[in-house]
Amino acid sequence: MTPEGRPWTFAAVCITVIAMTVLLFGLSWSPADALTPVYFAAYLLIGACIFGPAGKWPSLAQAAAFLLPGVVLALLALLGAGFWCGLWLLGLPGWGVLLARRTTEGRLPVTRILTFLGLLVVGSLVLVLTGFYLFLFAPAVLILPVVSLVRVAHPYYREKPLRPALEIFLAVAAVVLAITLPNQPGSWTSLFTYAGGATVAGLMIGYWATRTPLRFEQRRVNHGVRL
Question: What letter does residue 109 receive in the DSSP assignment?
Answer without folding.
Answer: -
